[in-house]
Structure prediction request, 492 residues.
Amino acid sequence: MTLLDSLELTVARVHQAYEEGSLTAESLTRSYLERITAYDQAGPAINSVILVNPRALEEARELDRRYREEGKFTGPLHGIPVLLKDNVNTKDMATTAGSKSLEGFVPDQDAFITKKLRAAGAFIIAKTNLHEFAIWGETISSILGQTKNPYDLTRTPGGSSGGTGAAVAANFGIIGIGTDTINSIRSPASACSLAGIRPTVGLVSRAGVVPYSMTQDTAGPICRTVEDCVRTLEAIAGYDPQDDETAWSAGRIPASYMASLKEEGLQGKRIGILESFFGKEEINEPVNRIMKEALDRFKEGGAVLVSITDEIDSDDMIKNVSVHLDDFKTDVDTYLESLGPKAPVHSVEEILASGKYHPGIEDNLKIALGLSQGTPSYNEKRMRQLLMRTRIMKIMADHDLDALVYPHQQQLVCKIGEGQKQRNGVLCSATGFPSIAVPAGFAPDENAPLGVPVGLEIIGRPFSEPALIEIAYAFEQKTKVRQAPLSTPALQ
Prediction:
């Protein structure tokens, strides 16, 4: 396999090449490291990688050795390089949450999902940038600065997992891991022409992940294809005694999520179109045009589309239903205290006192410092979450729906220096329901040679990932929207 083929590789294609003897994990890793060198700080300067794993080639060589000697893969992700969001603990690399207040800090243990990835045969090629402490959605941090969108270098890659999104889109690795509290897996997936799965809260452990809101946090895959997302989800899902919420997944994980990769998966599905999550202003027109074309593809695939006119206000949900900022101080303090005396900071108050953070998150840190769990306001939000869960379940029951669909962002991903508006991801975040974002198309723009990516979101009932995968995969196979960005071409 030549270096030119390092664009848009999938797990299946890499494994086939390993078996044929035309590729090794070492040579694959070397090609990705060369791409990171050429494009992350040089060239278009995507600025997505906080830290390259200094042992990446060594780990790849070890996997090659084991394959030669044992004649089989070490697991379902054997020799697959992972781009890991830098709020997921790694015992052999620093985990900073994008903050200079944690610069150089190496945790004692891997996060649960890091262990699961390694056990599946994958290895971490790099830790990726994020919006500092994941506390907003444009991917800017004090440790690295602003990550750019590889499709339009004047725009953000979404956030908070935008470092992962930009790096996967630019072909710096095979699979990526993000975390999601409000929008943060699906936003970079939408902005970077990728697939992203926000699992049901409780399907994937958060142990060893720097928290934002343990009520709403989850982790999941961001990849170039739905299939690779599914392979990754299968590797990281499961019960973890260190995360009580994962007890809800017991007995609810199928023998294989891969069985849901069906090209005819749209056939007969009843899909609700949540009309209130479509913007009604001129700024929304580029997204709405792409969505109209996408919905036509759903119908061509055999789905029955049902207009859902219930008024749900995503902006109001962020303010009055989501508890992200209310949880932040308690949950971050608990995490930092657990790190012990060698951690440089042990509370949000100490982070603020250190001054070692990006000024753009100061207001949110100060707001969070004045909030806490268990207050009347907090309890009212939690009650609204329960009511919203029931409301969505009732909408789906009343219309006999398999899923709901809407644009993840009502307007195009924002320019660098601006704040993203009209995101819809809060519906799943505040309810804990699962969703999958997939590429819907590209909206023309003078700064984007291919156009600005637009993603749609498919949501369902708790633990309905198999049905959502069927829909997302069938739509992906029918449309094949994904294209590699022109800013990071194959190296000659």
